Amino acid sequence: MGLDRRAFIKFVVGGAAGTLFTPIPWKLADDASIWSQNWSWIPRLKYGALTADATYSKLCPAGCAVKVKKVAGIAYGVEGNSANELSKGGVCPLCATGSQMLRSPSRVAGPMKKDGDKFKPISWDEAEALLADKLKGLKGQDGKVAAISGDLSGTANEVLSGFLAGLGSKSYYYMPTDQTAMAKAWNGVMGGSGQIGYDLEEADLILCIGADIMDAFGPVVRNQKAFAAKRPMEGDKTLTLVYAGPVRNRTAAVADKWVAVRPDGAAAFAMGLVNLLVRSGKSASLGGFSDFADLAAKFGPEAVAKLSGVNPEALKDVAKALLVAKNPVIVVGSESGQGAGVALSAAGVTLNAMLGSLNVLPEFPKAVASAPDRAGLLAKDLVGWLAAVDAGKAPAPEVLFVYEANPAYSLPQAGNMAKTLRKAGMLVSFSTFMDETAAMADLVLPAPHPFERLDDAQSPYGLGKATYALATAVVAPEKDCKGTPDFILGLSGKLGVDLGFGAFEDVLKAKVEAIGADWDALAGGAVHVSDKKGSTQASLDAGAMSKALAGIKGEGLVLIAQAHLNIGTGKLATPPLNLPTIRETELYGKDVFVQMCAATAKSLGLSEGAKVKLAAGGADISARVNLSEGVMPGVVAAPLGLGRTAWDPYTKGKGDNVCKILAVSAEPGTGLSVWAGSAVSVAKM
Amino acid sequence: MQAKEFKIRWGMVIDVDKCTGCGACMVACQVENNIAPATPEMDAWAGVTHDASNKLRTLTWMLVYEINNKKAFPEYEAAYMPRPCMQCSSPACVPVCPVVATDKNEEGGIVSQVYPRCIGCRYCMAACPYHARYFNWFDPTWPTGMDKGLSPSTSVRPRGVVEKCNFCHTRFQQAKDKARQNGGDPNNLPDGAYVTACAEVCPTGAIVFGDLNNPEHKVHELAHSKHAFRLLEKLGLGPQVYYYSKREWVHRLGDNYLPNEKKA
User: Which phi and psi angles does A333 have, rounded to 5°?
Assistant: First the structure.
């Protein structure tokens, strides 16, 4: 029997059909899809023992208590440490990507010295010798050596400021935050001691005047936890949140009530409340209260309406709510967490005192005896000092240390400030990342990433109780970096400045002992909380406040900068994984968006998407317009954290830096540099 | 597709009134699931400059939307709405997949996505009304060195496949393994034994995760609250993700009601 054409076709078709009843075609298709996706350049996962080590992450300003998750000893993720009272298991969007930032392309690989326009790697010994040589001749001359710190809670500041004191310099400054204005008010003008605290956990009403507690004010994750604990889904809420500010921001989005207040009129609004409370019979046991109450009487509802844009009835409603609440707490600050004045802070303190909510945290004892007091340093005006240096009224330092800060980018009128920083004889940056300040520094001495270092946090501003947390090195350093306090302790030894310690670990152990806390428990991720309270004795200076308040005009177009933690902070640019969290109404391609309501846009002849130039303080930025009815008329809101000129391709060159147009002025009566709600002009491009 | 019944239905109740839109859930999701950051270099081959400041091709398994009540100042209100995959009871994506790369067939009701099987036709993306599925346009590329610290939880996907949230499925497997090791019942996990990365990290606890069918799990009661609703409920897909808000306008926006339409 031969194989004819018909039989052949039957055999082929039958065979093909038959294979469909076998696994062969399916296995081949499966293999084809697997192997066509299995390329050498697709990263493979590493497997091994899964562990998690507790530490305190200081990537965000106040820090988050976290556990660093590791696989086979390699850090890959972060989870909240629910056993730690500070953040109770929550993590902010910056600390959530802490493990990835260990290997950020922006990390400084090792100590470097500026050589022309480029950096040249040097050894740590060379760096120490170079600095020792430079500083030897400056010892005993005040103002010749200065330092700027962006870490407001670490004991590292005691080492650095003690070192400067040992060299005979008092020029130690903190980066400006809401704590600066409060310290200037409470510890400076009012003569109080300790640190103002906010017991949000016990509050049944929180009134935020300006302060964006869910995004920019104080320990944000703790604020969020305190809020959420009293707003259960399954029961009745036991907390009312009222936000008084110019923008329906993230705090206002979850608040029960949003009262639109012009940023330049926030102090007038607070004084209006003081006045209404006085008229309801409330008083405060603060020195000079009677004169202050007389001053507040000038801020009747109609006057407040003129200065802050708040309807008189709305002001009265807020005052009524405060009077009815059992534990009301007033939190004052600026929308961006910086640039507010003493007048607003003093009014906030007074309101809390009148309502029985004034809360003062005692300072923890110092470990470095020669270090200046923290409260005094916090009240110092960095922007005012740099302006004086720029104007030639104060000498430019020969050596300027910058620790955990990025002043070249994040100070108001950033362009001018960067120019002033260049006047320093030698700019030394202790930065983990190649930020804008490090990029212009003469010497870059990289600090370890927060997961790689020993560090601590004492009472981050905004907490309701004196609190101490310890950060331990839970991963080996990825780069050739050195703990800044240890480097300074080594340098001080060479210069004959005795700080009483040879290593930073000993400093922290002395601190922990002085506090009466348990080192092992803290190193294991616990937090020390003290129930001790500070003295509430202080005096109001109605004269100074009168001058400060007289400066409020309540008219014209004003700018508010909005700090969003997911975009980054002044010292930490947007991490690569955070870019998708920035909305298209904030950044699209290279364009940053400024927000304004339709009424404001109409008055300026602008429409959605229009390209505009914003100018103030002798500088300008370009942006596009996003119409948002969440911004009150007469106000333009712009996000901070964009327009980076250093860092990496993920961040660099996106949008513009709003800090450039934050126009600084001196608050009348107190002299503090202020820029919250500064005037701005907007022109169509 | 007819709804499949499961003894266990993993689901979420997301409190819109508590979400501050911080984005921590989005970041934690990317870390857990090895979603590579989009870089300008990544698509140099196509001659296109593109990164995460343009959302056209980003991968956001979890995405936080900003919504508002469309009113003018001062009546304007805003809220934030995190959107993972809804793990629908009758998923629109499953019947359209020509290669059965996505299915709903495991106890727990999580809609699977088998990457090696996916041929990248994107029918599922067209079918999903929640825009919860993403096409991987680029090979995953991390900045130099960052790929050393990948999560062991989720395999890295090449370009050309569709990706989506799977309720951190590896955590589900780990929780079941742990239960077995400890002599427990892997099919009756206690509340909190299995939690997604987004729910774990959320600073306000706005995302609550658990078994919707288990009365001992918090989500069971919350999902039955009068304040709970589901997105586009009228489509009948039966999402296993519920939202919770006391604000009427949020409910109306959640189901695309016409301005004068009476709410069901």
Answer: 175, -170
Which among A639, A645, A648 is positioned nearest to A575, based on CA atoms?
A648
Q: What is the pLDDT of residues B15-62, one digit of tens each?
A: 999 999 999 999 999 999 999 998 776 555 666 566 788 888 889 999
Do A86 and A222 contact (CB within 8 A), yes or no? yes
Class of residue A358 by CB neighbours under 10 A (exposed 0-12, middle 13-18, buried 19+): buried
- pLDDT given at position B41: 64
- Say if residues A339 and A662 touch (Cβ distance below 8 Å): yes
Phi-psi bin for A159: left (phi > 0), alpha (psi -120 to 50), beta?
alpha
What does the pLDDT read at residue B48? 59
Average the pLDDT over each of A476-490, B133-147, B157-171 and give the range with the smallest value: B133-147
Is A51's Cβ below 8 Å from some Cβ in B? no
Is B139 in contact with A42 (Cβ distance < 8 A)? yes
Nearest residue to A356 (alpha-carbon basis) of A184, A178, A217, A204: A204
Q: Point out the residue among A74, A577, A631 whose CB comes nearest to the CB of B148.
A: A74
* Nearest Cβ partner for B22 among A74, A566, A628: A566
Task: List CB contacts (< 8 A) between B158 and chain A.
Answer: 37-39, 42
Is the per-residue pLDDT at B264 higher than 70? no
pTM of the shown model:
0.95
Report yes or no: A399 and A370 within 8 Å, Cβ to Cβ: no
Contact assignment for B39 to A50 by CB distance below 8 Å: no
Of the candidate ranges A421-430, A516-525, B141-150, the one whose mean pLDDT is the lowest: B141-150
In chain A, the largest separation of any two C-alpha atoms, in whole Å, equals 123
CA dihedral A165, A167, A169, A173 (to 10 degrees): -60
DSSP secondary structure code for residue A185 in this structure: I
Query: In angstroms, rounded to a whole number, what is the distance separating the alpha carbons of residues A78 and B23?
Result: 15
Query: For residue B244, which residues of chain A lie inside 8 Å, CB to CB?
Result: 233
